[in-house]
Amino acid sequence: MTGQSERIHGERAIRSIVIVGGGTAGWMAAAMLARRLEKQPVAITVVESSAIGTVGVGEATVPGIRDFFREIGVTEREVMAASHGTVKLGIEFADWKRPGHSFFHPFGLYGMRSRGVAFHHYWQKLRAAGEPVELADYCLATAMAKQNVFMLPTDRPVHDLLFFDWAVHFDAGLFAKFLATRAVSDGVTRVDATISTVRINAQTGLIDGVDTNCGKAIDGDLFIDCTGFRSLLLGAALGSGYEDWSNLLPCDRAVAMPCERAGPLTPFTRSTAFAQGWQWRIPLQHRVGNGLVYASRHLSDDEAVATLRSRIEGAPLAEPNLIRFRTGHRRDFWRGNCVGLGLAAGFMEPLESTSITLIQTGIEKLLALFPDRDFDPALASEYNRSTTLEYERIRDFLLLHYWANDRRGEPMWDQCRDTALPEALANKLRLFRARGHLVRYEWESFQDPSWLSMYAGFDIAARTYDPAADYFSIPDLQSALARMRESIGKAVALGEPHDAFLKAYAVASA
Q1: What is the spatial distance between Cα 254 and Cα 256, in angstroms, rounded to a whole number?
Q2: Does the pTM of the predicted model rise above 0.85?
Q3: What is the C-alpha to C-alpha distance for residues 60 and 481, in angstroms, rounded to an integer?
Q4: In whole angstroms, what is the distance from residue 45 CA to residue 180 CA?
Q5: Three-state SS string across 88-145, please?
Q6: Residue 322 φ/ψ region, left for φ over 0, alpha for ψ in the -120 to 50 degree band, beta for the rest
Q7: Does 177 qualify as catalytic in the annotation?
Q8: d(CA 103, CA 97)
Q9: Nearest 5°: phi and psi at 277?
């Protein structure tokens, strides 16, 4: 039976994959597929036009990107050297709660569990007793970020207090070039052309192929749409509609402009709120990435460009790049024999650096549900179900940033506080406020420490704590927390300045 099954599967197996569009999404897909389908008779072609630019503002990642590096057989050092990369320990949120206030969302744990009780319950107990305990003081990643130092984490920390993770900032254009070189060396074919026609089979409704402006026809079995906001295959040709979340997340424009660095080479992203949106700062070895994300009904494009010019720290290195978007996603991410990745699938504003994560998880899910040429609808159905959940979970985390603000007298922010929350997010808040209970749903991208950083940063307090925390007295907890702070201080002292680390570890190759 096994031999018969393998013969039948082989007859219907995917033999050609056509990725339409390059950029980060297209070349991440090509690199991963080439690696995972190695030694299988599958031809992979990327069709991209050197005449069409990419959005290219996503330069910050989350720690999961390092798993992607390992999957395609490269190291952090190689990627960072090729793309002027820097370390990211988390995100600083300035002025989000109110002007003059800031907090940090780290890639790390807070404190230590004891007797099965999570640290934040002990933190809540001390605060209830009038102790001015700052949650941020018990996270190593936050402490290193404040001191602008870094060290590679140990694989086996002796306890949770010394656990942290890290991600990278990189030049997205250089990262895509690095991936393209890697993918081509692994057998991927690149065609430099623009798409003139998407050919749909009238009987099956599947894509037979694409025609290009140079007269070349490219047929395939499986198509991956990486054509950006245009979504030429999934949206335009196959008619997958769009789920628009503009009613929940207010911003619909961004303007990006790199500049020379005048400030410190910080190992973190900075997000700074202002009256009509927020500004990002992403430090790279050769420049700083800057941008404004804003609501066009509160700020014109010309005003946004002028605002960004007035707020960057050094001389601009390029003209402003204006981006219009609708937060949301395609109703079907996989339709027929086409899967959308990146902007062709949807857009979540870059507030928590999730764009590249969604590309990565999209590729992973496709490989886990990899079809044959019969394209069983059950596979697409599960892909669409899980990806929709993933987008909704990220949406809710981003929405919390806006809804929890205390910026009074500013129309955009006042409106955000009045937003009716989706039930899943409202339930998270109810349970945390009831007794500090943290809920994790299916396909959550952000773990408990991330939600804790938001609750603490926006002063969303629990009414009580786990009663098991009463095993320790207030003096016991004061002593234990003092020892934790001391341990973190000793660990931070082992780090080296971020710029010194980069010079020794991954200085840019060009």
Answers
A1: 7
A2: yes
A3: 33
A4: 11
A5: ECEEEEECCCCCCCEEEEECECCCCCECCECHHHHHHHHHHCCCCCCHHHHCHHHHHH
A6: beta
A7: no
A8: 9
A9: 160, -135
Render pLDDT for 205-255 as a digit per residue (tens, 0 to 9).
999 999 999 889 999 999 999 999 999 999 999 999 999 999 999 999 999
Question: Judging by beta carbons within 10 Å of its beta carbon (0-12, 13-18, 19+), is residue 294 exposed, middle or buried?
Answer: buried
Q: Phi-psi region for residue 366, left (φ > 0), alpha (ψ -120 to 50) or beta?
A: alpha
Catalytic one of 88, 97, 125, 365: 88
CA 33 to chain centre: 20
Q: How far apart are CA 100 and CA 190, in angstroms?
A: 50
Residue matched to tokens 């699938």: 345
**What order do you get walking across the sheet with 217-219 strand by strand?**
195-200, 207-212, 217-219
Yes or no: say if 203 and 242 are a contact pair by the CB < 8 Å rule.
no
- Tokens (6 digits) for 452: 């804790």
CA-based torsion, 407, 408, 412, 415: positive or negative? positive
Q: Which helix (H) or strand (E) holds 391?
A: helix 377-403
Digit-coded pLDDT (tens) for 36-88: 999 999 999 999 998 776 555 558 999 999 999 999 999 999 999 999 999 99
- The answer to whether 114 and 103 have CB atoms below 8 angstroms apart is no
